[in-house]
Amino acid sequence: MSATSLAALARTSDPQTVLRRFLALDAVVTGANGIAYLAVSGPLGRLLGVDSGLLLGLGAFLTVYAAAVGLLASRARPAALPVRAVIEANLGWAALSMVALAVWLSPTAAGAVWTVLQALTVAGFAVLQYAALKARQGISD
Where does the chain cross the membrane (predicted)? Predict the structure, then answer.
């Protein structure tokens, strides 16, 4: 992904702002997902065919993770090491989601679609964050 493409997606040409916006978007989406899992784990569990206890645990984890990513996004210049940790965690989440779908979970059709979509979304965040970090380092490091 080119710096121009990233700038267009983030609606700014400042690499620092691009990175912070992609981190913030990740935090918002992840936080909303976590809160939904916490607030309505029973109905969501039935819809997705996933144990509500699992959703509660995931909801707690995702809410804390989202807060940490949001804190990172709020920094004027997020440090590269924590940004890389977020990228790697996102890639790990996406891979683990697909493995869980293949070998462990027995979701409904809606749950299978949801698992794939959220894995692709999280992997997309990782790609955008990596490209933004690379663009920032190429210009200012």
Answer: 21-40, 52-73, 85-105, 111-133
